[in-house]
Amino acid sequence: MTLESLGWNPVFAEAFKAYEGRDLIPGRIALQHRTYYSILSEIGELRGEVTGKMEYLASGPQDLPAVGDWVVLHPRPEESTATIVDLLPRRTKFSRKVAGRKTEEQIVAANVDVVFIVSGLDHDFNLRRIERYLVLSRQSGANPVILLNKADLRDDHKEIRKAIALIAGDIPVILASALKDKGLDAIAHHLKPGCTGALLGSSGVGKTTIINHLLGSTRKTAEVRENDSRGRHTTSARELILLPSGGLLIDTPGMRELQLWGEAEGVDETFEDIEELERQCKFRDCSHDVEPGCEIRAALEKGILEPERYESYKKLLRELAYHNRKYNEVEQRKEKERIKKRTSQFKRNFPKGKRS
User: Fold this and answer.
1) Distance (Å, rounded) from C-alpha 82 to C-alpha 25?
2) Model pTM greater than 0.90?
3) Is 64 in contact with 48 (CB distance < 8 Å)?
4) CA-CA distance, 52 to 38, in Å (whole number)?
């Protein structure tokens, strides 16, 4: 196992220079457990934990290691353990809002080169969900590829490709059948040695079967329900897997809740056609309702723009604006709490009568 085989490149090497000569080595997070990490390194697989200082200084889970991250380690080879002392800057990160009511960022995978958006051509097929994954993929900085699995269940592939092209442009599309072992060799074209991919999709789309093919071995799989094509989670945690071809792949659990996180750039790229129409409107602050010279309304009336796509665009923008507003409110409350704690500590250390 070499650093290069784990995805190491000159960008990470430059970032690690600050730690050279201090009995420290780089490693890559392969699996995140409840209280520790499985880490791959040149000296083998290590069990690692972050320092107390690193955990204390973290403002949230986004400041702690995630699967795919490169970390700085103080290794103990004789014990196959290590202490994680720092986190190297991420090149890319696939983030979403954490599930539930909390307004926090969850990093699904870090330092990914290619995101494979996996959708089944059964009841799971949903253009609006694919749009959502495209937005998050573009926000991550990785290159998206759409992988349509279970192609053996349909024969209208030409129409499906046309529908995908309307929302994805020239993004690569792979038609495959993992069960029939067809079309999956195209994945290797995007995963050269040292290149990291991530499989993202809802439960039951066949991610584990796809990995079985790439590994040439059998991992646990589960059947999906026939009535709605929903599957059970056969992957319970994100995991970095080394493929025989030399590429790397991050397997992720099926995500039934995929809320947006970050800025609007991903929306702008995914809905570039709508952005262009908005720029052509007669009025810059056009609400696309009753104003004259509205290109959006004209495109809807002529059938050039699908109403469902336009509604999806507005929904995603509203969702991003809402989460960003809530996040800013949360951060303001945290800052007030930090100031309150510092003030209280100051008063305890320097009683009023002793201040000069």
Assistant:
1) 10
2) no
3) no
4) 18
3-state secondary structure of 92: coil
Question: Considering just the CA atoms, what is the radius of gyration of the chain in Å?
Answer: 24
The DSSP H or E segment spanning 118 is: strand 114-120
Mean pLDDT over the full length of the chain: 82
**E strands, 183-293, in order:** 196-200, 239-242, 248-251
**pLDDT tens-digit map of 128-180:** 889 888 888 888 889 999 999 999 988 899 999 999 998 888 899 999 998 88
The closest alpha carbon to 67, from 259, 324, 327, 253, belongs to 253
Low pLDDT (below 70) residues in the chain = 97-104, 217-236, 254-266, 323-324, 326-356
Per DSSP, the three-state class of 20 is coil
Strands annotated E in 124-281: 143-149, 173-175, 196-200, 239-242, 248-251
Q: What are phi and psi of 224, to 5 degrees?
A: -105, 155
Beta strands 105-110 and 114-120: pairing type? unpaired
